[in-house]
């Protein structure tokens, strides 16, 4: 039995707790949260041991692993404390708010041979996994461009108040929504060498971004675009999708399905055909031991458990790959602060052909 | 329970196969009249039970049914609560207190304040739970609700946490206050049955995915088959087509061949699909009445 503690009982923490508590190989020996009230109710009705002080809990309880789902700004401190006690760590996303922290913690985890994982659950979605398998098989030839999108109805009017509305605490659309998409793009085409044209716009929020747009530059001339908006009420819930263009075809995927167009120049994988192919979630999803809110949430926790049992430090969503995502987020923040790289004024000076086109149009109109 | 129950996912853009299809459904059912037309088609096919969430828009359906008692003499609602997004949105808009006030039952603030306040202070969830159930049931006042369900997101959260008392509180309140049978929707049927047994909730109504390909049947299809064979509970099968990935005849023949399934809940957006599902099920289940003679649809009231 793996003895584990759940830290943070917000939306994510509570559902992680329910899933991992149902896992046959795990015993939840403690939960930790700053709210005495929530802990009191949970202890009264489920009997679980509760703690309000994280460090005191680590001191007192015999543990193999921790699952950290606290506000993002506290991740670095807690992850470090856990690793220093040789505990395996599952941490919610985003991993940290500073690339330095992320790199140091990754090194520490590796040094101690511990299992580390960050909650980028999209990599456990059947349809997104299928995309990775197709790319690895070079099914669409050389990738030229990727488009990553996420839309949903989180902030629909001016408000504030929770940690999610403060950038310094890890709030905002970039950390919350866009991080998922960036992580998927990194998985598909590797680490970007740079970003440009990043826009972090407020729609309703006072302090943080509600929209994120950016261009990503990958090695070998591949490019990517990111379009994310969490103030879009036309979506019932968060909707993430990717489109990937290659020399031999195109892939589109969302949580429900993976649509693939393969040209006759493509090395057609087994089970696929030239032209359109569709794979649905019903055929792409592996069964899980317990279902709460989507197989991917259960599957990522099971992957963590299985890695601990097999003492396997490497695996999907390790601190290494989450650090890559933290780096891209940091690049985007820096890039957005620069504003437009080309302004209207210097464009007019630089572009003779544009003026010619203008005159021609004027003449035609007159 | 009727052998065929009509579900409501299609009305709210919930589609497990395709986001495009989900959006097309949202567009189509934007006007409540379009929802009522489909419900009428189901009713006229002899499908008299509507198993629905407590989405705000369902209250419009409730109003319509209340306003036409003759047309819907046998219409039964099986509410499933809570509609989780509603709570999340209300807390966002009105804050915690505002949301609680908005969902208060008609009988007034005093009772609610006493039940709720005492409950909060003692970290006793009974008061607050019954209060929320009453709030969810508000829209069904005066309508027939013989079975009341707890939605799978809550059932499975409580199941995972080991928060077992909540099931008993829900069951007791639904029985005593609404004279209804409690029902539980779950994606983890075998595990839930163990807990309901342990709590002494006898012969419970449990609705879960039951389909030929084992889609979202946690614990495995064998465990589900064993539970259907060996355990005492009233099973409702949902997702029998596994979101359209099993051909209708194959799906229905397999489900109807399983022992001890009392009802099937299905969703459809057209009269044709409702009719063909009904025909298929009555072919497989001998005890289902043949399709009633249909009323010309013009005779039904419209909004």
Structural overview:
Chain A is of the alpha/beta class and 366 residues long. Chain A has two domains: 2-121 and 296-318, Rossmann fold (3-Layer(aba) Sandwich); 123-288 and 328-336, Dihydrodipicolinate Reductase, domain 2 (2-Layer Sandwich). Chain A is built from twelve helices and 14 strands. In chain A, the strands form two sheets. Chain A has an eight-stranded mixed β-sheet. In chain A, strands 3-2-1-4-5-6 form a six-stranded parallel β-sheet, sandwiched between helices. In chain A, strand 11 and strand 12 (249-254) form a beta hairpin. In chain A, helix 4 runs parallel beside helix 5 (99-111) and helix 5 (99-111) packs antiparallel against helix 10. The longest helix of chain A is centred in the C-terminal third of the chain and has 20 residues, at 319-338. The relative contact order of chain A is 0.15. The model of chain A is unreliable at 354-366 (pLDDT under 50). Chain B is an alpha/beta fold and 303 residues long. Chain B has one domain (4-299): NADP-dependent oxidoreductase domain (TIM Barrel, Alpha-Beta Barrel), CATH 3.20.20.100. Helix content of chain B is 49%, strand content 13%. Chain B is built from twelve helices and eight strands. Chain B has helices at residues 19-28, 32-44, 58-67, 84-102, 109-121, 125-137, 152-161, 165-178, 189-199, 221-230, 248-257, 271-284, and strands at 4-6, 49-53, 76-81, 147-150, 181-186, 205-209, 234-238, 261-266. In chain B, strands 1-2-3-4-5-6-7-8 form an eight-stranded parallel beta barrel, surrounded by six helices. In chain B, strand 5, helix 9 (189-199) and strand 6 form a beta-alpha-beta unit. The two termini of chain B are 29 Å apart. The model of chain B is unreliable at 293-303 (pLDDT under 50).
């Amino acid at each position: 039995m793996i003895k584990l503690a759940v830290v943070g009982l917000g939306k994510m923490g509570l559902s992680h707790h329910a899933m991992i508590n149902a896992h046959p190989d795990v015993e939840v020996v403690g939960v930790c949260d700053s709210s005495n009230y929530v802990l009191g109710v949970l202890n009264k009705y489920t009997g679980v041991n509760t703690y309000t002080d994280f460090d005191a809990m680590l001191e007192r309880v015999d543990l193999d692993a921790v699952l950290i789902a606290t506000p993002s700004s506290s991740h670095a401190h807690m992850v470090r404390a856990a690793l220093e006690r040789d505990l395996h760590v599952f941490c919610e996303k985003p991993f940290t708010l500073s690339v330095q922290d992320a790199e140091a913690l990754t090194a520490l985890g590796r040094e101690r041979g511990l299992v580390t994982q960050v909650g980028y659950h999209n990599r456990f979605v059947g349809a997104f996994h299928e995309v990775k398998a197709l790319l690895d098989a070079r099914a669409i030839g050389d990738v030229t461009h990727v488009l990553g999108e996420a839309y949903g109805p989180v902030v629909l009017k001016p408000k504030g108040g929770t940690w999610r509305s403060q950038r310094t605490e890890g709030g905002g659309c970039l950390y919350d929504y866009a991080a998922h998409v960036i992580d998927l793009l990194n998985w598909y085409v590797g680490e970007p060498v740079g970003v440009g044209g990043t826009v972090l716009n407020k729609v309703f929020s006072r302090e943080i971004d509600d929209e994120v747009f950016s261009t990503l530059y990958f090695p070998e001339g591949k490019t990517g675009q990111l379009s994310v908006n969490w103030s879009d009420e036309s979506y019932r819930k968060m909707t993430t999708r990717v489109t990937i263009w290659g020399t031999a075809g195109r892939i589109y995927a969302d949580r429900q399905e993976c649509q693939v167009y393969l040209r006759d120049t493509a090395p057609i994988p087994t089970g696929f055909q030239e032209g359109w192919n569709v794979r649905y979630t019903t055929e792409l999803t592996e069964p899980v031991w317990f279902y709460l809110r989507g197989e991917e949430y259960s599957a990522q926790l099971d992957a963590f458990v299985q890695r601990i049992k097999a003492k396997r430090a490497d695996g999907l969503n390790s601190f290494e790959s989450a650090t890559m995502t933290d780096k891209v987020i940091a690049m985007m923040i820096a890039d957005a602060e620069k504003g437009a790289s080309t302004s209207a004024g210097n464009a007019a000076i630089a572009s003779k052909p544009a003026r010619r086109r203008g005159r021609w149009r004027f003449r035609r109109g007159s | 329970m009727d052998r065929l129950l009509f579900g409501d996912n299609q009305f709210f853009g919930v589609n497990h196969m395709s986001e495009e299809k989900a959006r097309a459904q949202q567009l189509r059912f934007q006007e409540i009249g379009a929802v009522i037309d489909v419900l009428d088609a189901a009713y006229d096919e002899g499908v008299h039970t509507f198993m629905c969430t407590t989405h705000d828009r369902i209250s419009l359906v409730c109003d319509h049914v209340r306003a036409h008692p003759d047309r819907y003499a046998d219409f039964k609602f099986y509410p499933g609560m809570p509609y989780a997004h509603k709570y999340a949105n209300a807390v966002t808009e009105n804050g915690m207190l505002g949301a609680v006030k908005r969902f208060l039952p008609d009988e007034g603030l005093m009772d609610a304040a006493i039940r709720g306040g005492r409950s909060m202070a003692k970290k006793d969830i009974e008061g607050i739970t019954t209060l929320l159930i009453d709030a969810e049931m508000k829209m069904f006042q005066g309508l027939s609700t013989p079975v009341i369900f707890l939605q799978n997101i809550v059932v499975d959260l409580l199941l995972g946490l080991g928060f077992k008392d909540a099931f008993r509180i829900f069951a007791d309140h639904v029985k005593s206050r609404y004279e209804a049978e409690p029902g539980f929707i779950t994606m983890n049927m075998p595990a839930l049955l163990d807990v309901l047994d342990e709590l002494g909730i006898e012969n419970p109504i449990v609705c879960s995915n039951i389909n030929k390909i084992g889609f979202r049947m946690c614990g495995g299809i064998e465990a589900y088959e064993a539970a259907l064979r060996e355990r005492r509970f009233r099973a409702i099968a949902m997702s029998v087509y596994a979101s359209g990935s099993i051909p209708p005849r194959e799906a229905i023949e397999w489900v109807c061949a399983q022992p001890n399934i009392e009802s099937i809940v299905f969703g459809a957006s057209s009269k044709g699909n409702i009719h063909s599902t009904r025909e298929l099920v009555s072919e497989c289940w001998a005890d289902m009445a043949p399709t009633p003679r249909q009323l010309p649809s013009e005779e039904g009231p419209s909004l």
